[in-house]
Amino acid sequence: MGDVIVNGMGSRHRLLMSVALASLALVACGRGSEQDIAGTVTLRDSSGRFRVDQSTCSSYRGELKAGTQVVVRDGDGSTLGVGSLQSGSPGEAVGSTGRSYECVFEFYVNGADSSDYYQFVVGGIQGPTYSREEMEARDWQVGLSISE
Questions:
Q1: Domain segments of the chain as ranges
Q2: Model's pTM, two decimal places?
Q3: Phi, psi of 38 (to 5 degrees)
């Protein structure tokens, strides 16, 4: 990007104007083209049938574990981005229905293409769909829950 020269401005003002325009261009480029999405997948089971290895966990059948793909699709089913589950952290929760056991995974999808709708698929399990407005309101973070 070249220097913006405005008549009557000194070199300090020209530099500040250049930095301001460059910052504005970066914001405009990042907006509407790609988004980074962060989230968690919480696997709940009242019987605690998780595989626990020291401080990590996975689902009993093994379909949800570190490395399982998280696919983000648009409303037509085209892939917008792909991430993967990080190591799961085991835990317990007590609710109105009694005690349940949890395995919580984090995931990141970097550079997901822009869309009007974002549908999540975790290890082949169909998840929810959010509109762009909902994702913006969530600050591009989602919390998904699966019960076994």
A1: 1-31, 34-147
A2: 0.70
A3: -120, 150
